[in-house]
Hints:
By secondary structure, this protein is an all-alpha fold. It contains 12 helices and no strands.
Amino acid sequence: MRSQTLIQLSGAVVLAVLSLSPARAATGGEPAAVTQVDIAPCLAAAAADDMDKANSACAAVIDNEKTAKADLVKALIARGALMARHDQIDRAIADDSRALLLDPTLADLFNARGELWLKKGDKPKAVQDFGAALKIDPNHEKAKANHKAMARELERIGAQMAVAGKPSFNCRSAARAVEKAICANRELADLDREIFGSNARVIREARNPAEAKALQREQDEFIARRNAGYGRPGYDLKKAMQERLQRINGRDGY
């Protein structure tokens, strides 16, 4: 009975060893290594600007669960740059965003995504990405230049928004019906402010005091005609203001 039990145990041990042998055969006793995903075709196709090959080669890497994190980041960056070069901005942003989730220390990639946001017209997101790049690398030259330019642009936009819908005069002291009408209409208010600003510019750029005086007299005459004409049958205030602005700036604008 004892010998029969030993035989059974020995058989079980042999079966266990045999079941492990395929995994150990490759290294003489060590488990077989997991095959690495080859990212070279993806990188080569992206570098060669070959969209067709890159789409398939990079997808094979990016969609493979076995791809190492570092290789996945490289493939995403390569494909994202390729998409950006072909003006597929949304796809490029998607790849860059995924890569940054995996590795949020890439200053170059934050700057690159910021430039893509800028192409889409999303200036706040662009500034945010340029700022993120500078937090990682305060000496990043491209990010510094981009952030500085966009900060100034946002200041300008903010200043424009602050005066949007406001005319050149104080609406609280508006007494004439035409002034109240301008204050009540954002488009007319913006037109009034543009007329005032453009007139101030041409006077400032006048060649001599006499010319400046003549330009101001022309503006005063327009205001007088506007005040007298408003409310009369057939008078179009908006049209009159547009024509005045066009006359100041020239037919093709300033």
